[in-house]
TrEMBL record:
InterPro entries: Methylamine_util_MauE (IPR009908). It is found in: Membrane. This is Uncharacterized membrane protein. It comes from Micromonospora mirobrigensis. The chain crosses the membrane at residues 43-61, 68-88. The lineage of its organism: Bacteria, Bacillati, Actinomycetota, Actinomycetes, Micromonosporales.
Length: 126
């Protein structure tokens, strides 16, 4: 496995794991759905899980990797309001939860960078 392919597959794995957890543990994600979104939070939790799985698939397939990488970057930008809400909601919780809430925020930048890097890489032949 080339490092380019490995980098893309690692991103696809991260997205797939996130998608699966949104679908199997929605109760964790529902409270951080921004209130300004219309409809029930559960809809947005499931929709984001499906989106993560679709983007993971696009990133994993060389033919669709560029589009998948760009979609992953957009997805990481789109979920930033949920991470901001989590940090705000968890600011008075215990040190571990506070660290998780605040720790997710600076992780968005490297995730966006990673997705754009995967999008820039040419698909492998064969």
């Amino acid at each position: 496995m080339t490092s380019r392919r490995g980098e893309a597959l690692a991103l696809a794995g991260l997205l797939a794991a996130a998608g699966v957890t949104h679908l199997t543990r929605p109760g964790f994600y529902d409270p951080i759905v921004p209130r300004r979104l219309p409809g029930p939070a559960r809809f947005w939790t499931y929709a984001s899980g499906v989106a993560e799985l679709a983007v993971a698939t696009a990133v994993a397939v060389p033919r669709t990797r560029r589009a998948g990488g760009l979609a992953a970057a957009a997805l990481f930008v789109a979920v930033l309001p949920a991470n901001v809400r989590m940090a705000a909601d968890w600011r008075h919780r215990g040190p571990t939860k506070r660290a998780i809430g605040y720790g997710r925020l600076p992780l968005q930048a490297p995730l966006i960078w990673w997705a754009l890097r995967v999008a820039e890489r040419p698909a492998e032949k064969g």
